[in-house]
Amino acid sequence: MTTSPSSPVTDDPPAAGGPPRDPVLGSRAAAALVFGASAAVLVVEIAALRLLAPYLGLTLETSTMVIGVALTAIALGSWLGGRVADQVDPRLLIAPALGGSGVVVALTPLLLRTTAQWSPALLLLVASATLLVPGALLSAVTPFVTKLRLTTLAETGTVVGRLSGVGTCGAIAGTVLTGFVLVSRLPVSSILIGLGALLVLAAALVGWRARRSRRAVAAALATVVAGSLATGFAPGGCDAETRYHCARVVADPDRPTGRTLILDGLSHSYVDVEDPTYLKFAYVRALASVVDTAFPEGEPLTAHHIGGGGLTFPRYLAAVRPGTRSLVSEIDAGVVRVGRDLLAPGPAGTGVDVRVEDGRLGLRRLEEGSHDLVVGDAFGGVSVPWHLTTSRAVADVRRALDTDGLYAVNLIDHGALAFARAEVATLAATFPYVALLGKAADIGLDPTASTVGGNLVAVASGRPLDARAIQRALDDRNVGWRIATGETLAAWTGDARILTDDHAPVDQLLQSDRSPAAR
Question: Do residues 435 and 466 make contact, with C-beta atoms less than 8 angstroms apart?
Answer without folding.
Answer: no
